[in-house]
Amino acid sequence: MQTPPVDSPPAPPQPRTALRVTWVLAVCSALLLTLVAVEWGPLLRLDDDIAGTTHRWAVDEGGVTHAMRILTDWVWDTWTMRLLCAVVVLWLWWRRADRWTAVWLGTACLLGSILQQALKAAVDRPRPVWPDPVDSAHYAAFPSGHAMTATFVCGLLVWLLHHCGAGRGLRRAGLALAVVSVAGVGVTRVWLGVHWATDVLGGWLLGALVVALAVLVHRHRHRHPASPVRP
Question: How many Cα neighbours within 13 Å face the side chain of 199?
Fold first, then answer.
């Protein structure tokens, strides 16, 4: 019996496991959305405590705050993430000639952005207000657009590394970079006082849900390819 090569991509999770993960993410996202929408007291007090503590740190640590602004405005900005997604879409289309996956990736990111804006408009949660703000942001607070966009873009790209059979080193590097980016952008939004902690948590959950749903669609397509049209 031959053993698989060391750098072969791991076997994908079973369909039932992926479906369970999707349901768990959906339930958690819906629960948090409901608690935020009804302004549940314990959740608001927790947000206030975290926001107050991190804002004091941001005011006291000017150098760290400046670095946070650079990271959130340039490195992990939503448009930076969308540009990264667009580059990968073009690579899939032209270099790998995998046009279905290219369209799938672009559509998933577009729908994720639309969902984010729709929820912001529906919940219309006000952002934190400070007498001495260290940064500013526009539009409603929930969910955090930076956190949600980073989560579904990085999550989809990490999954594509496995799907395309990238080597183990590249997969590990991609996963590490994605974890740092997703966690880091959430920290910057709370540190700069432009989001509540639950805005970031909601962005993470909803972004992960977008990834899970998109992966289910991709796997369904490959399990049931379209039949060729006969003349």
Answer: 34
